[in-house]
Write a structure and sequence with these properties.
The chain has 432 residues and is an all-alpha fold. It has 20 helices and two strands. A hairpin with a 3-residue loop joins strand 1 and strand 2. Bound molecules: N-hydroxyamidocarboxymethyldethia coenzyme *A.
């Protein structure tokens, strides 16, 4: 058995017992009151879910199992050629709560290489779609088409004991994560290149190999994928992609159904699709202003025009965060290190100065600061990936690690079917 699975075998029973005790002895303790505004307002701040893998502080940003992004950049092992953390290391941390050793990482890399072949019928399912189908639609179809492979579904049919659910969910997760780079790379090559599969390079790590399979063989692109896949993985449990995966998984749908559903949520412009919208919006600015780097005055006018036309400024604002997203800052550091002169990076930096005061002056957005999606596109364009409709698929490959690690823990601690209570406006009127 792998080091990762045996570690889970060791820690799950103890944690399950601890959760059982908490539920038994402290089940009546109140977490929060819910207001009418919260019920109509998308449940902001309502504390009603358990997610172990990460926690989001409005001011500080994300902590993965207690570690900030700068801490992980320092503590997680990196590839021999670079300095960015390996996403396999983050996955080990999300799964176990402990920092991985080099050996732990090497084992996951090898296991994902061995499990990484996409079943033939998945290519056929994708090929049945028109080539110009949005990459996120192809991604969702490609994930759910693999449901034929679900070990959990087969074990459930045989009558597996509830205590053991997490084990086939673990196997499904490892297979799915191993194959996502091949799936995403195929969607990229099919949508924008000649559609010929680029075979995996067994000498590379998960992120480096993903870059290679999409046809990007520079060290900078491999490093970009490593940091990108690490920082997008998890953002506690209430965001739409995580919450949807959790909700669908709570019915004991297998991870193929659950992740595909989560990815459909990520594909919304208020969530993960914002990364493509940011690039589209910046390109519009450049087009309308005749190319080159616009002036601050030009940018201010463009932001006000966007607001006046009833649209949001993509990449700014957040449902929880109230300061600059540390995932934005990590990407800014990458740009400062590798591409400080890049023209689009200069526009992104200028927007950082221009947008927050305007959103504050407009007085609607609770958070005027940039989120993760404000920065990722320019790093990709600089490295030769111009097809911005594809960007959310990269986000999805990363997000899968967080939401699937959580799904394993959901089954490990026996979380039940999720079923909150809804109310009618008639009822609300009756209690006023
Ligand atoms: N531009 C213009 N208006 C904005 C805004 C922005 N960037 N952010 C918020 N607002 C507006 C809202 O639309 C809302 O207006 P109404 O009262 O007219 O409905 C008002 O300000 C209050 O919103 P809020 O409470 O500050 O924000 P929400 O929690 O409702 O929404 C969003 C959070 C991220 C959806 C929002 O900030 C937004 O639309 N941002 C732009 C899209 C974006 O970047 N999304 C990606 C977020 C990060 C993420 O999930 N990545 O995957």
């Amino acid at each position: 058995m792998s080091l990762l699975k045996s570690k889970l075998e060791e820690i799950i029973p103890k944690f399950r017992e601890e959760v059982g005790e908490i539920r038994k002895n402290h089940g009546d303790k109140k977490l929060c009151d819910v207001t009418v505004a919260q019920a109509y307002g998308g449940m902001r701040g309502v504390k009603v879910m358990i997610t172990e893998t990460s926690a989001l502080d409005p001011d500080e940003g994300i902590r993965f199992r207690g570690f900030t992004i700068p801490e992980l950049q320092e503590k997680l092992p990196h590839a021999a050629e670079g300095e960015e953390p390996l996403p396999e290391g983050l996955f080990y941390l999300l799964m176990t709560g402990e920092l991985p050793t080099e050996e732990n990482i090497a084992e996951i890399t090898k296991e994902w290489q061995e499990r990484g072949t996409l079943p033939e019928h998945v290519y056929k399912a994708i090929d049945a779609l028109p080539k110009d189908t949005h990459p996120m639609t192809q991604f969702s179809v490609g994930i759910v088409a693999q449901q034929t492979e679900s070990i959990f579904a087969a074990e459930y049919r045989k009558g597996i004991n509830k205590m053991d659910y997490w084990k086939p969910v673990y196997e499904d997760t490892m297979n799915l994560l191993a194959r996502l780079p091949a799936l995403a790379a195929y969607i990229y090559l099919r949508s924008y290149k000649d559609g010929k599969v680029i075979p995996a390079d067994p000498t590379l790590d998960w992120g480096g190999n993903f870059a290679h399979m999409m046809g990007f063989d520079t060290k900078m692109f491999r490093e970009l994928m490593r940091i990108y896949l690490t920082i997008h993985a998890d953002h506690e449990g209430g965001n739409v992609s995580a919450h949807t995966t959790h909700l669908v998984g709570s019915t004991l749908s297998d991870v193929y159904y659950a992740l595909s559903a989560g990815m459909n949520g990520l594909a919304g412009p208020l969530h993960g699709l914002a990364n493509q919208e940011v690039l589209r919006w910046i390109m519009d600015v450049k087009d309308q202003l005749g190319g080159g780097v616009p002036t601050m005055e030009d940018l201010k006018k463009f932001v006000w025009d966007t607001l006046a036309s009833g649209n949001v400024v993509p990449g700014y604002g957040h449902a929880v965060l109230r300061k600059t997203d540390p995932r934005y800052s990590a990407q800014r550091e990458f740009a400062l290190k590798h591409m400080p002169e890049d023209e689009l990076f200069q526009v992104v930096s200028m927007l950082y100065e221009v947008v927050p005061p305007i959103l504050l002056e407009q007085g609607k957005a609770k958070n005027p600061w940039p989120n993760v999606d404000a920065h990722s596109g320019v790093l990709l364009v600089h490295n030769g990936m111009h097809e911005y409709d594809f960007y959310t698929v990269l986000f999805g490959v990363s997000r899968a690690m967080g939401v699937l690690a959580s799904t394993i823990w959901d089954r490990a601690i026996g979380l039940p079917l999720e079923r909150p209570k809804s109310l009618t406006t008639e009822y609300i009127k009756s209690i006023l």
